[in-house]
């Protein structure tokens, strides 16, 4: 039974990955999860300098999921290279580094620093606010997305995954822009912008007012967007958004995703990823599926 999938020349032992920002670099989860059994660990966003993140409170539970306005708090590329990469290299899993920035130059600095490291792929978070465009996210305008993808591809030594924001009118326009600019793959969806108000205090629950919603409630939106993009571009897709178990993962793959990432459910059940790996294998046995690649995009 074959569970391996390949994206941009990188082969993963199975299609189950972690979603950026929900798993750190695996250190916190390594006592619960055997990282050797995951297809890949996708790290928390890494910037060229340390980011303090947003003021608290910055996490709130909502119906069917959670809101977060962490603000991509991270210790910066220096600490990441010194601490996190050596930790992950102890394990037999692929390393995908999520990269964030506020200007194109910020992204390029991180991409270039990672060029000489032993990581497998780069996932570019284009939901960051573009300070030169009046804080609109890089991934909300097709021309901005094309430009940053093009620039990163000129400097990156590893294959590039552009992580798309769902907070757009037409997700396929963004997918096509990333593909046209040379992206090796795309991942989607990032969080959906949401809000929660405390009616007794008459104030916003998050200090940032708005936050990114993740969790099971967004899954139908994510499946739809993955399906649309799979039928709009030829590059591989990593699907995410509300994936809670193996059946969710399989649904995303049938919609056209080559691999999947688990996010919010890591907070609910730290064993989710391993249970998903096992659940996918059981499904394949029950359905007499020899090669997992046979289910990718099988629903048209």
Helix content: 25-40%
Write the CATH fold name: TIM Barrel
Question: Rough shape?
Answer: globular
Chain-averaged pLDDT: 96
Spans where pLDDT lies below 50 across 5 or more residues: none
Assign the CATH architecture: Alpha-Beta Barrel
β content, as a range? 15-25%
| Count of extended strands | 18
Reading side by side through the largest sheet, how are the strands ordered? 3-18-17-12-11-8-7-4
- Indicate the structural class: alpha/beta
Strand count, sense and closure of the main sheet? Answer: 8 strands, parallel
Oligomer: single chain
Helix-strand topology string = EEEEEEHEHEEEHEHEEEEEHEHEHH
* Number of separate helices: 8
End-to-end CA span? 24 Å
Can you walk me through this structure?
This protein is 29% helix and 21% strand. It has 300 residues and is α/β, with parallel strands linked by helices. It has one domain: TIM Barrel, CATH 3.20.20. The strands form 5 sheets. Strands 3-18-17-12-11-8-7-4 form an 8-stranded parallel sheet. A 4-stranded antiparallel sheet has the order 5-6-16-13, with no helix packed on it. A hairpin with a 2-residue loop joins strand 5 and strand 6 (65-68). It is globular. The protein starts with a strand and ends in a 14-residue tail after the last helix. The model has no long low-confidence stretch (mean pLDDT 96).
């Amino acid at each position: 039974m074959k569970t391996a999938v390949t994206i941009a020349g990188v082969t993963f032992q199975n299609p189950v990955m972690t979603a950026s920002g929900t798993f750190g670099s695996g250190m916190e989860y390594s006592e619960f999860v055997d990282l050797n059994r995951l297809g890949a660990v996708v790290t928390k966003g890494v910037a060229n300098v340390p980011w303090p993140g947003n003021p608290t409170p910055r996490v709130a539970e909502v119906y069917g999921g959670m809101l977060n306005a962490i603000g991509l708090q991270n210790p910066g590329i220096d600490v990441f290279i010194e601490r996190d990469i050596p930790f992950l290299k102890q394990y037999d899993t692929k390393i995908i580094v999520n990269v964030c920035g506020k200007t194109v130059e910020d992204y390029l600095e991180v991409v270039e620093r990672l060029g000489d490291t032993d990581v497998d792929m780069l996932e570019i978070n284009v939901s960051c606010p573009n300070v030169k465009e009046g804080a609109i996210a890089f991934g909300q305008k097709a021309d901005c997305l094309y430009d940053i993808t093009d620039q990163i591809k000129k400097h990156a030594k590893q294959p590039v995954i552009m992580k798309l924001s769902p907070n757009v009118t037409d997700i396929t326009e963004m997918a096509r822009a990333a593909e046209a600019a040379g992206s090796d793959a795309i991942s989607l969806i990032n969080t959906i912008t949401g809000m929660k108000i405390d009616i007794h205090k008459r104030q916003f629950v998050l200090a940032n007012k708005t936050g990114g919603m993740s969790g099971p409630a967004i899954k139908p939106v994510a499946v739809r967007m993955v399906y649309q993009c799979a039928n709009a571009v030829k590059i591989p897709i990593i699907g995410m958004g509300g994936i809670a178990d193996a059946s969710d993962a399989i649904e995303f793959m049938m919609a056209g995703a080559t691999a999947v990432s688990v996010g919010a459910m890591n907070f609910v059940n730290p064993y989710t990823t391993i249970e998903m790996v096992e659940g996918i294998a059981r499904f394949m046995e029950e359905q007499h599926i020899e090669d997992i690649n046979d289910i990718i995009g099988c629903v048209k």
